[in-house]
């Protein structure tokens, strides 16, 4: 998260995170990685962390 956004309301920070996810998913798509593969990977990591 950009340091300039710290201290602003939570909505701005959530919007910034949403943009980051969109950017990452679009970059992954260009590399041939499907969004579902990313979801499965993150779900697996979440389960491991628990």
Explain what this protein looks like in three dimensions.
The chain is an all-alpha fold. It contains 2 helices and no strands. The mean pLDDT is about 80.
Total count of helical runs of at least 4 residues = 2
- Largest sheet entry: none
CA gyration radius, whole angstroms: 14 Å
Termini distance? Answer: 25 Å
Average of the residue pLDDT scores: 80
The ordered string of helix (H) and strand (E) elements is HH
The quaternary organization reads as single chain
Shape: flat
Q: Can you give the helix content as a percent range?
A: over 70%
Low-confidence stretches: none
Instruction: Tell me the β content.
Output: under 5%
Count of strand segments: 0
Q: What structural class do the secondary elements suggest?
A: mainly alpha
Task: For the structure shown, list the relevant keywords.
mainly alpha; 2 helices; flat; 50 residues
Q: How do you describe this structure in short?
A:
This protein has 2 helices and no strands.
Topology at a glance:
Elements: H1 10-30, H2 35-49
